[in-house]
Write a structure and sequence with these properties.
The structure is a homodimer.
Chain A: H1 8-16, H2 24-46, H3 56-82, H4 84-90, H5 98-139, H6 145-170, H7 176-212
Chain lengths: ~210, ~210
């Protein structure tokens, strides 16, 4: 069943169980979707308000972009489950003869790459979502600025959760050049994304404690 | 409807909308529940394995504790919605006469305190969950160590998301002594919890890149 069609209880139950999926990969993608939804809430609380009329068109665009990103996160949560079974099956392939060994290695390599590209895409979507949350934190309704802060933490979890599955899979790849290239790409996103997330969150916290404290 | 009985799609839809609840508070509590569930997955993958027989009784206890904490996070997500309506209603109370003003101030103060105690409890549960995840990261199945890492990020989001609602509500409280006491309690949990989360996550990352990189 598609992730979004499950009740939260059902998802939590299978996540808690020893079933291999959903696991950290699916939970990371779901965190990204929750963070995107919070960004949409902020956009929806901004649109239609006189005070924010000047940025309304821009906010509408950000709302649309978040809708697409949220959908991508859910698609990737499902995809994360799909790539698991063929990869697990690879480990059970025979490797007695040299032909069997060569075949197993090739299929394994293909499946490891497929399993790495899913969390890489989760990370890319998280980077996009963070940039939108930054704009919403600057221009969106001040009433909802705390929701930007929570959204940022959720998307950051998507980023820092997904990178683990990148490292697990690239660690087993034979093509070290490709593996290092993917690790480098992921590492750069972690560095840039964490810094951006911290910057947005700290700004929100500053505003909250200044405004009201 | 209880949070956990909704489908993920339903929850994401209302979260995205301009409806005030669920918002950042409910999403923070849900992040805590997801992180606790991942901890349970790690425990379930450890129990029954010969290699971890020595710690099995301890892990079973951690599993039970996480089940209770996960339930508390869900209860607090619902509670977060419950305390919103009476607080919002307070702002609409009349404040013409001095009696009306005094009554409004008193009711407001009570409701602000109730609305602050929910995220404070979310933070307390997050602190408990982080300590359990630390133990699971040290003693649980090495196969599932990345799930500890993702779980930690989710629970950290519960902590850093919930604190925003503490500051928003204490910022409006008239009793500044009580407000500062609550802010201090929350600030200490943020500091200790973030440090603990970073420590566990970095340890997991180190193991993943050493093991396989």
């Amino acid at each position: 069943m598609a992730v979004e069609q499950q009740t939260i209880q059902e998802f939590l139950d299978t996540l808690s169980s020893k079933a291999p999926v959903p696991g950290g990969g699916g939970a990371s993608a779901l965190a990204g979707a929750l963070g995107s939804a919070l960004g949409q809430m902020v956009a929806n609380l901004t649109i239609g308000k006189k005070r924010y009329q000047e940025v309304e068109e821009e906010i509408k665009l950000l709302l649309e972009q978040l809708e697409a990103i949220k959908g991508e996160f859910l698609r990737l949560a499902a995809k994360d489950e799909e790539v698991f079974a063929p990869l697990a099956a690879c480990y059970r392939l025979p490797s007695q003869t040299s032909e069997e060994k060569a075949y197993k290695e090739q299929v394994m390599e293909e499946n490891l790459l497929a399993a790495t590209l899913v969390p890489i895409q989760v990370m890319e979507k998280a980077m996009e979502a963070l940039k939108i949350l930054k704009a919403l934190g600057e221009k969106g309704s001040r009433m909802a600025v705390s929701d930007v802060g929570v959204g940022v933490q959720l998307v950051r979890t998507g980023l820092l959760g997904a990178v683990m599955n990148v490292y697990i899979n690239t660690g087993s790849m034979k093509n070290r050049e490709k593996a290092e290239e993917l690790n480098h790409r992921a590492g750069r996103m972690v560095k840039e994304g964490s810094a951006l997330a911290d910057e947005i969150y700290d700004q929100v916290l500053k505003e909250l404690t200044r405004q009201k404290g």
